[in-house]
Amino acid sequence: MKHAPRGPIKARPEAHPIELPNPMKAVQCKATNRQGRRCGKPAIRGGVVCRLHGGAAPQVKLAAMARLKAMQPKALDTLEALMDRDEFPTVQLQASKAVIDWTEGKAKESVQMEVSGDEALIAALLQGRKRAAEARG
Questions:
Q1: How many C-alpha atoms does 7 have within 13 Å on its Cβ side?
Q2: Exposed/middle/buried for 55, CB within 10 Å: 0-12, 13-18, 19+?
Q3: Tell me, what's the pLDDT at 3?
Q4: Which residues lie closer than 8 Å to 52 by C-beta, 6 or more apart?
């Protein structure tokens, strides 16, 4: 599979590269401060305001999630179209996966480890962990 080329934006002839929207840039908060200037913070995912300007409110979070869920069919359609596409599908694939991850959550990953070595050192580490847990409550 070929990856998308790096470098300058390959824009359509009628569009200037600077005028093209940047899909990777977070949406800027639409709220204004006391001086009347726009807030510079990024909006919450799927929302139009940052956490400090109301994005932490439950009803705003629900509306943002509804907007993201509304994008799921389009993301799934994009994934379906990418199965037949041969040239540079990685950018569209990652965008589609991001929408699904944001709405349904990412797949769980687990790591299994085996520790071997000095038994006294392992016992001391476990004791320290136990004391730290007891101190927390």
A1: 5
A2: buried
A3: 62
A4: 39, 41
**pLDDT tens digits, 72-83:** 899 888 877 777
- 3-class SS string, the chain: CCCCCCCCCCCCCCCCHHHCCCCCCCCECCCECCCCCECCCECCCCCCCCHHHCCCCHHHHHHHHHHHHHHHHHHHHHHHHHCCCCCCCHHHHHHHHHHHHHHHCCCCCCCCCCCCCCHHHHHHHHHHHHHHHHHHC
Q: What is the pTM of this model?
A: 0.50
Check the CA dihedral 67-72-75-81 and report its sign: negative
Q: How confident is the model over 20-46, as a mean pLDDT? A: 82
Task: Work out the number of other CB atoms within 10 angstroms of the CB of residue 60.
Answer: 19
Q: Are 85 and 119 in contact (CB under 8 A)?
A: no
User: What pLDDT digit, counting tens, does each position of 89-105 carry?
Assistant: 787 777 778 878 878 88
Tell me the C-alpha distance between 39 and 127, whole Å.
48
